[in-house]
Specification:
two-stranded antiparallel sheet; 27% helix; alpha+beta; single chain; 3-stranded antiparallel sheet
Length: 109
């Protein structure tokens, strides 16, 4: 008889859902009624995270070790892109929003 003890947790049976969470990131962001505006954030998949890491990693040569290379992650750029990728609302790519903060950037991957 087949043991069905682990049947419901096998990888191909898992029901992965990206859950969007609402979070009040700051008391500074309020709507017309004075209520704190909640941002919507989502988790990234491992594949999305890997894409971000690869996009922000350069191959550098070790100083004093000619020919020896190593990967170096630009952690500031990676962190910025990671945060931007997780934010669902507000739309950080929105031109009006960027203009209001004097930001002219597109953090895409």
């Amino acid at each position: 008889m087949k043991n069905d003890k682990y049947g419901s947790i096998l990888k191909n049976k898992m029901q992965y859902k990206k859950k969007i969470k609402k979070v009040a990131v700051s008391e500074r962001f309020k709507d017309e009624d004075g209520k704190v505006v909640e941002w919507e954030i989502r988790p990234l998949t491992a594949q999305e995270d890997q894409i971000l890491r690869e996009a922000n990693t350069e191959i550098k040569e070790l100083k004093g070790k000619k020919g020896q290379l190593f990967p170096q992650l630009d952690s500031n750029k990676y962190s910025s892109m990671l945060i931007a990728a997780c934010v669902v609302f507000p739309d950080l790519q929105n031109q009006e929003l960027q203009d209001s903060y004097g930001v002219k950037t597109s953090l895409t991957y």
